[in-house]
Structure formats: structure tokens, C-alpha cells
Automatic annotation (TrEMBL), chain A:
Keyword entries, A-Z: 2Fe-2S, Iron, Iron-sulfur, Metal-binding
Native source species: Actinokineospora fastidiosa
Source species, domain of life: Bacteria
One matching Pfam family: Fer2_2
UniProt cross-references to InterPro entries, sorted A to Z: 2Fe-2S-bd, 2Fe-2S-bd_dom_sf, 2Fe-2S_ferredoxin-like_sf, 2Fe-2S_ferredoxin-type, Beta-grasp_dom_sf, Diverse_Oxidoreductases
Name recorded for this polypeptide: Isoquinoline 1-oxidoreductase subunit alpha
TrEMBL record, chain B:
Residue ranges of every copy of the Aldehyde oxidase/xanthine dehydrogenase a/b hammerhead domain listed in the record: 217-295
Name used for this protein in its record: Isoquinoline 1-oxidoreductase subunit beta
GO molecular function: oxidoreductase activity
Keywords on record: Signal
Keyword Signal attributed: yes
Pfam family, one: MoCoBD_1
SMART domains linked: Ald_Xan_dh_C
Signal peptide stretch: 1-34
InterPro entries with a match to the protein in the record: Ald_Oxase/Xan_DH_a/b (IPR000674), AldOxase/xan_DH_MoCoBD1 (IPR008274), AldOxase/xan_DH_MoCoBD2 (IPR046867), AldOxase/xan_DH_Mopterin-bd_sf (IPR037165), N-heterocyclic_Hydroxylase (IPR052516), OxRdtase_Mopterin-bd_su_IorB (IPR012368), TAT_signal (IPR006311)
């Protein structure tokens, strides 16, 4: 079986896996990194959203071979030790999570949005397609706006 | 299985409970004023939550609360946390009563505890209502013991001591709970008097979830995140609901695929165990299987709708002599679709088994799995894991049972994941329903109000959470249908003085996987009534808010309606294609009103742009958590009213993912939501399910006012706008 090396949350890792194994399962089943969640497996629900080289990607539809040599960040790697990322901080302030299952993906999507667009409009926030079955959307929206403020100050 | 008669009698007792209690409570119905009074419906007197509380009463004191040697407290909660915030709310109750900082209270979910009988079911918006007193009493007892221990140590009367911030304080002394907890456990302290406090310090203040930090850092663990042994496992399922395996043609070839560990046949399909879920999925997709038919292969939306229409009971009042108004509504099947799909871990050995899953009825899960495996009940340990959403779904333990069967067949521990497609097609659904309403009126008053509900049977096979009533729900005589009637009668009631009111349910048994979906019958039944109320108001040339106001029964109900009318500026001018809509609902001793604005300029893609919600929960334990529940209820209503449903085609739902089952996304959600929790007015009412029906009414009414089109079938926009996944 081929092996692939990449970095996850700043650490270099190597996995034995078939080339077409979705990166989600390399992360979860081989490396025990369980922050990215399975919700659909076909790039629809966005629960698995993580970052690759600083951009949002969906590991459920990205073969592990494609992430070789690249830098992956999952929700576990977003905070700086105990210091939360402003988006996480805003999420706590707004008490966004209900069951919490979609929230790693929501947060990683929001971080990616705010990197591209430091002061997003409602229409730009609308473009986030992550499903929240608990229906927390309004708090997600408020938390993104609050995070934008925190990141400016 | 034969049922000893005393077990039957127990069910009879439960069913009879509403009548038994009527006599004691009838005096509380408020006198009618101008409107023609409606005598109280059973749900006015004793609702489903009351029954669950009564059923749980003999065991309610079996809650365990410990004061630990680090000075913190741990509450073992016999309920499931699935996002509804009960671990936070109960931690607040303990913190308040024990005078302990909230951060020092831990709440853990109990394993299945069969001795709790009915008292380990999470449903009916019941948790806070049922544990409010026992949790406070337990915490008050702990505090009294700690004070008594300090009094003994210092040789002073207990009455001179007080508690604060995790410590007992006297005039010259201070000892932390950590220092006192051993002494407090001594039996020679003598009796202590226990009175829960009447003043709250934490209860009633908006509080963030106790697990919020774990959730935003990815450390919150759901079933398949647990670091336990077990092979990733997925199941190839039949092309129609309840189909069974006839033959597997290529099991050996699939076993030889990379990463595949084993292939086993179970009742529900063919399981593939592998090194990773990706490989399990590839293996199951590669299987060639012939299938036996399922139980509803000839059914589709049309056949089911015809059955429902035929099943709706006739009206009593003929449309003679008086003026009348009729309406009919249809609601599609709806997937529960919690974002964490059906999952479980099972480790079955020859002489014992251990199960991990998000379970709202763990006792019946344990009892059924033990029977299935041929093990004594106490050899099956069932752990309740925090779940990624439920909405009623996790009342059923099908994943746990399936995982146990697979683990037994394969002789190894397994981690079972249902694909999203399977979760939508072979999972549980809210039953489709048909509604007929008729009201007669004269001189501006409503004289009669009749509602006939025909629904595909809702499965209550989980009973009240343990095997006695679960079995009773399966009895051919009485059985699920009378259980369903009990649930209907104890949840559905009209909040209005509409004269002689009858709300009747008739169910059509179809062997499909249905189940309670947040607010059970109320979302459709009361949702339809709220739409009908608007139509009646128009017929009588009354404003929808003023009309409701005139017929609501209590000042408390009118207060939430007034709140949304004022805060939402009811009646304000809006451009063409936009409109406001309002809805009201009362259930489980809580009430709420919802006012929305809709942008329906594009009828095929309307959007709720604003919402104002007010709710009276009696005693709002955690207003911030309650607001979250109302926000969730609003999003559910937006989804199911406008876009989200399942089409049944030849015995299977067509929808298989969120790209097809159109649950709302951010772009469908309002950009302005304001929620008002009314000040305390009593003891805690139900919380989790309250929000849906009022919002269903408000959204449909706004749509009707914006477009001039009366909505009759839900979801309103429901095309098959996708290529279904292969079966
Ligand atoms: S699991 Fe990756 S998008 Fe749904
Ligand atoms: S918080 Fe439950 S799915 Fe979003």
C-alpha cells in the first residue's frame, strides 16, 4: 500500500492508505483526528470542512493522494494552545452550538470566509452552505459578524 | 412473546390516567368571557409530559448527585443530551442549589439503568419538567449534609452557618466542600431538613452551554469519535423499505478487497467490516445482492395520500343552517436527518456485550439487545453517548441493535456508520398526514371547531423507554394505535374558545419506519389549525392578531401574542410580495407566539427575512438555551413549511442527502431574529418542541398574505429537482 506524508495541525504525519481513500478517513480512522465530521460523504453538508494550505476544503471528497506534501488544518489546530481563534471566541460569546456536530465545519468555513472577506455582508455569509440541522444559522451569522469585529481590533 | 396480564393493566392505567385526574383539576379551567367556551381537552388537564412525570414518579429520586473530593459535584443524569441543552440546565439547577460555581458542576449521562423503568426516556419536552424537583431536592440534601458536617466539626448549630461559592461559612470558620465531603457522608450525622431554595441566583440567568468550548475546539466526542476498539462497518441496504437479503453473490470477492475484514449478513442487510470507513463503503458498494421484497413496495405518494384521505373521520356538524368554513391540508413525510447519522459501537462476546450510542430510550435498547443476543440483561452494558442531534430520531435504537447483531455475527467489535443516503431512506420519518378542518360560526363567534387528522401510523415502539410498555405498544389489540391515541390526546388541544371543539386522530398502519419528530403531532396538527385560524379571521373580516386575541383563553397566552405584535410592528406597511404572518401555540404548560416577515416575490423561492418570537415557559431555567430551542424550532418550520420533505416512490424515499431533502441553509434563514422569553410565571414547562407549530402557522400565513395563494400541501415548494441516487 502506498504511503503519503503531509502536515496536520503543524505536525508531519505519514499514512499507509490506498490513493483513493478520502482524506476524511485518513484523518479520522488512521490518525485519530476526529474534529472533521462525516455528514454526507459527498461534499453537500460541509460538516467535514477543514483547511488545506489555508483554504477551505472537504476531505470527504478529497483523495488522500491529493493532500500529500500539503498543509492541513482541522478544527483541532485552529486555536493557539489555550488561546482560541477569534472565530471560536465569537462562537462562545454567541453560544452558537446546539448539538455541536456541524460546528467544526461551520467554524472552519467562517475562518476561510473572513480570511478572504474581513467584513462580510449578509449576502456573503449566505454563501456558506454548511448544513446545521439544529438550525443555529442566525447565531452563526451573528458570530461571524462578531468575529469580524474581534479580528479588526 | 406472551404478556402477563399485570403488564397490560399497567398500560391501561397509563391510558386511563387523563380521566382519573380530570376530577381533581377541573376547577382550574378559566371562565369564558364573550367567546363561546370550549370545555378543557384532556391535554389541558394532563398532558403527555405529566404522564411521563407520573410514570417516572416512583423512581424520580434515583438521581445520583455526588460531591467529589475536589469540591465539585457530579450529577448522573438518566437522560440523553443531543443538543437540547439539558446538561447545562441541570448543572445550573445543581449550582444554584448547592451554592457552587457552575464550572464545578459536572453532568454525565447515565448508562442504561433498568431499575429506573420509565424514568430514562428523553422525549415529550420532558427532561427539565421531570427532573426539576428531584435535582433540586438532591442538591439541597447534599448542601444540608455539608452544613451538618461543618456544624458537627465546629460544635455550632447548623442554623448559624451558610453556604457560598463551594464552602460552608460560620462566624469564625470556613471549610470548602472538598474538606467536608467525607464527613458529610457519615451516617451518624442525624437527620437533616431539606428545603430547596425559593430564590434563584443562577436559574433564570442566560447561561452558555457547559460543553460549548469542547464543541468549538473539536474536542466534543460523539459515538464514532470515541477511542475504542472496533472495525469501521457499513451496511448495504435493500432497494425498498424493510426488504431482506435473498442472496449475496460476491461475498468472497468483496472480502478480498483491500482493507475489507469481513462480510456478514444480518436481518437489515449485508455488513462490511473494514480498516477504514472509506473501505467499508467501497466494499458495500461493490456487493452484488438479490433482495426479497419489503413491506411497502407498492406504495408511493399517491397511494398513501389516497389512503389518508379515505381514513379521515367524518365531521359531526353538517354544513346546514349555520355558516361554515372548511379546509384540507396535506403534509409530506419528513426525515429527522440529525447531522450525525445513525451510529453505534458494539462489542459482543460470548458471555457479555457492551454498547455505545446516542440513545433516548437506553433501557428498552438494553432489554431488547440482551434478548436478541440471548444474554441476561445485566450482562449487556449500554452507554449513552452525547448525540449530534435527534429531533426524536434517537428514541429508536436500531443502530445499536444492528451493531450488536453484526458484532455477534462477525465475532469482533464494530463501529457502525449509516451512510447519509441510508439514514434518509431507511431511517425514521415524521409520518405523512392529511387534515380536514371545519368551523361553524354565527354573529362573529365560532360555534364549533372540528379537526380530523389522518396520519400514517407513528411508531411508538420504544414505549415509555422500557420493555413493558414497548411491548404493549406492539400488541395487536390496543397496541401502537391506542398508544398513539394517548399521545395525541395528551398533546393536542386548542388554545382557543371556539365552542364545541373536537380533534380526532385516525392512523393508517403502514409498515414503514416512522417516529416522533420534534413536536410529534403538533407541528402538522396545530400548524394546520393556525393556518385555518387565519382563514377564519379573513372570512369574519377580522385582523389575524385581533381575532386570536379575542378567542385565546388566558391572559398569559394573550401576553406572548401582544409581545410579538408590538415588537414585530404587526400591520406595518410592506412592499408588494412581502407580508407578515403570525402563529400561536401552547403545549406542555408553555406558550409561544411567532411573527415572521416573508419575501415571496419569487414564489418558488420565498425567504423568511425576519422573525420575532415570544415564549412563556413558566420558569425559564436557562433563557439562552430556550432561545436556542426556539431558533431551532423556527428553522425546522421554515424547512418543513417551504421546502423539506420526502417523496415516496415504489417503497422508498427518493431523497438521499441534504442536496435533495431541502433542509434550510444559511441562505434560507432570516437575517433578523428577535426572541423574548417572558418573566417567570410558575414552574418549568416543556421547551424542546414548543417552537415548531407556531412558526409553521406564521410562515404559511405570511406566504398566503404575500402571494394571495392559500397553501394546502406542505412543503409548499416540493419538486423532485434532482437525480435520485441508485437504489
Ligand atoms: S461529509 Fe464532507 S461535505 Fe458532508
Ligand atoms: S449544532 Fe447541531 S447540526 Fe449544527
Amino acid at each position: 500500500m502506498p504511503t503519503y506524508s503531509f502536515t496536520v495541525n503543524g505536525e508531519t504525519v505519514t499514512v499507509d492508505a490506498p490513493a483513493d481513500l478520502p482524506a476524511l478517513w485518513a484523518l479520522r480512522d488512521k490518525l485519530g483526528i476526529t474534529g472533521p465530521k462525516y455528514g454526507c460523504g459527498i461534499d453537500v453538508c460541509k460538516a467535514c470542512t477543514s483547511h488545506i494550505d489555508g483554504e477551505a476544503f472537504n476531505p470527504c471528497v478529497t483523495p488522500v493522494a491529493e493532500i500529500a506534501g500539503r498543509e492541513v488544518t482541522t478544527i483541532e489546530g485552529l486555536a493557539d494552545g489555550d488561546v482560541l481563534h477569534p472565530v471560536q471566541q465569537a462562537w462562545l460569546e454567541q453560544d452558537v452550538a446546539q448539538c455541536g456536530y456541524c460546528q467544526p465545519g461551520q467554524i472552519m468555513a467562517a475562518v476561510a470566509l473572513l480570511r478572504r472577506t474581513p467584513d462580510p455582508t449578509d449576502a456573503e455569509i449566505d454563501a456558506i452552505e454548511n448544513v446545521c440541522r439544529c438550525g443555529t444559522y442566525f447565531r452563526v451569522r451573528q458570530a461571524i459578524k462578531r468575529a469580524a469585529e474581534l479580528m479588526r481590533s | 412473546m406472551s404478556i402477563p396480564t399485570n403488564r397490560r393493566r399497567f398500560l391501561a392505567y397509563l391510558v386511563a390516567a387523563p380521566t382519573l385526574t380530570v376530577a381533581a383539576k377541573i376547577g382550574t379551567a378559566e371562565p369564558a368571557l364573550a367567546a363561546v367556551p370550549t370545555p378543557p381537552a384532556p391535554a389541558d388537564l394532563l398532558d403527555l409530559g405529566d404522564i411521563l412525570i407520573l410514570a417516572g414518579a416512583p423512581t424520580a429520586n434515583l438521581l445520583t448527585l455526588t460531591v467529589d473530593e475536589d469540591g465539585g459535584a457530579t450529577l448522573h443524569l438518566p437522560r440523553a443530551e443531543v443538543g437540547q441543552g439539558i446538561t447545562t440546565a441541570t448543572a445550573m439547577l445543581v449550582a444554584d442549589e448547592l451554592d457552587l460555581p457552575l464550572a464545578l458542576v459536572r453532568v454525565v449521562l447515565d448508562d442504561a439503568r433498568p431499575e429506573l423503568l420509565f424514568n430514562q426516556l428523553t422525549g415529550g419536552s420532558n427532561t427539565i419538567r421531570s427532573v426539576y424537583r428531584p435535582v433540586r431536592t438532591a442538591a439541597a440534601a447534599a448542601r444540608a449534609r455539608l452544613v451538618a458536617a461543618a456544624a458537627a466539626r465546629w460544635g455550632v448549630p447548623a442554623t448559624t452557618l451558610r453556604t457560598e461559592d463551594g464552602a460552608v461559612l460560620g462566624q469564625d470558620h470556613r471549610a470548602t466542600y472538598a474538606e467536608l465531603t467525607r464527613d458529610a457522608a457519615r451516617t451518624d450525622l442525624g437527620p437533616t431538613t431539606v428545603t430547596p431554595k425559593s430564590e434563584h441566583r443562577i436559574v433564570g440567568t442566560p447561561t452558555s452551554r457547559v460543553d460549548a468550548r469542547a464543541m468549538v475546539t473539536g474536542r466534543q466526542r460523539y459515538t464514532l469519535d470515541l477511542d475504542l476498539p472496533g472495525h469501521p462497518t457499513m451496511v448495504r441496504r435493500p432497494p425498498t423499505i424493510n426488504g431482506t437479503v435473498r442472496r449475496v453473490h460476491n461475498a468472497e470477492a468483496v472480502k478480498a478487497m483491500p482493507g475489507v475484514v469481513d462480510v456478514v449478513v444480518v436481518e437489515t442487510g449485508v455488513a462490511v467490516l473494514a480498516e477504514t470507513f472509506g473501505q467499508a463503503q467501497q466494499g458495500k458498494d461493490a456487493l452484488e445482492v438479490s433482495w426479497n421484497p419489503g413491506t411497502v413496495d407498492d406504495e408511493d405518494d399517491d397511494t398513501i395520500r389516497r389512503k389518508l384521505r379515505a381514513a379521515a373521520l367524518p365531521f359531526v356538524v353538517p354544513p346546514l343552517l349555520t355558516q361554515y368554513q372548511d379546509a384540507e391540508f396535506d403534509f409530506a413525510f419528513v426525515s429527522h436527518a440529525p447531522l450525525e447519522s445513525n451510529t453505534a459501537i458494539a462489542d459482543v462476546r460470548a458471555d457479555r456485550a457492551e454498547i455505545w450510542a446516542g440513545l433516548k430510550s437506553p433501557i428498552v435498547a438494553q432489554q431488547t439487545i440482551a434478548a436478541e443476543l440471548g444474554l441476561p440483561q445485566h450482562r449487556v452494558k449500554v452507554h449513552v453517548v452525547q448525540g449530534g442531534g435527534s429531533f426524536g430520531r434517537r428514541l429508536f435504537f436500531d443502530a445499536a441493535l444492528e451493531a450488536a447483531r453484526i458484532s455477534k455475527a462477525a465475532g469482533r467489535p464494530v463501529k457502525l456508520l449509516w451512510s447519509r443516503i441510508d439514514d434518509m431512506r431507511h431511517g425514521r420519518t415524521r409520518a405523512a398526514s392529511h387534515h380536514k378542518l371545519r368551523a361553524t360560526f354565527a354573529l362573529g363567534n365560532v360555534l364549533t371547531f372540528e379537526h380530523r387528522v389522518a396520519s400514517v401510523e407513528t411508531d411508538f415502539g420504544h414505549g415509555l423507554g422500557e420493555i413493558l410498555t414497548a411491548t404493549a405498544a406492539e400488541l395487536p389489540v390496543g397496541g401502537n394505535l391506542s398508544f398513539a391515541q394517548t399521545v395525541f390526546l395528551t398533546t393536542i388541544k386548542s388554545p382557543y374558545h371556539f365552542g364545541v371543539t373536537t380533534q380526532l386522530l385516525n392512523e393508517v398502519p403502514l409498515r414503514m419506519h416512522t417516529g416522533s419528530w420534534r413536536s410529534v403531532y403538533s407541528a402538522n396538527t396545530r400548524g394546520a389549525e393556525e393556518i385555518f385560524v387565519d382563514e377564519l379571521a379573513r372570512r369574519l373580516r377580522r385582523d389575524p392578531v385581533a381575532f386570536r386575541r379575542a378567542f385565546l383563553k388566558t391572559a398569559r397566552q394573550r401576553a406572548v401574542l401582544d409581545k410579538v405584535a408590538v415588537e414585530g410592528q404587526w400591520g406595518k406597511a410592506l412592499p408588494a410580495g412581502f407580508a407578515q404572518g403570525v402563529g400561536f401555540h401552547e403545549e406542555y404548560k408553555s406558550c409561544t407566539a411567532c411573527l415572521v416577515e416573508i419575501d415571496a416575490r419569487d414564489r418558488a423561492h420565498p425567504r423568511v427575512t425576519r422573525a420575532v418570537i415570544a415564549a412563556d415557559y413558566g420558569l425559564p431555567v436557562n433563557p439562552r438555551g430556550l432561545e436556542a430551542q426556539l431558533l431551532g424550532g423556527l428553522t425546522d418550520a421554515i424547512s418543513t413549511t417551504l421546502t423539506a420533505g420526502l417523496h415516496i416512490d415504489r417503497g422508498l424515499p427518493l431523497e438521499g442527502s441534504y442536496s435533495q431533502f431541502h433542509y434550510a441553509r444559511q441562505a434560507d434563514s432570516p437575517t433578523d431574529v428577535r426572541i423574548f422569553i417572558m418573566p417567570p410565571s410558575g414552574e418549568p414547562g416543556g421547551a424542546g418542541e414548543l417552537g415548531v407549530p407556531a412558526a409553521v402557522g406564521a410562515i404559511a400565513n405570511a406566504y398566503a398574505r404575500a402571494t394571495g395563494v392559500k397553501p394546502r400541501s406542505f412543503p409548499i415548494n416540493f419538486p423532485v429537482d434532482f437525480e435520485p441516487f441508485p437504489r
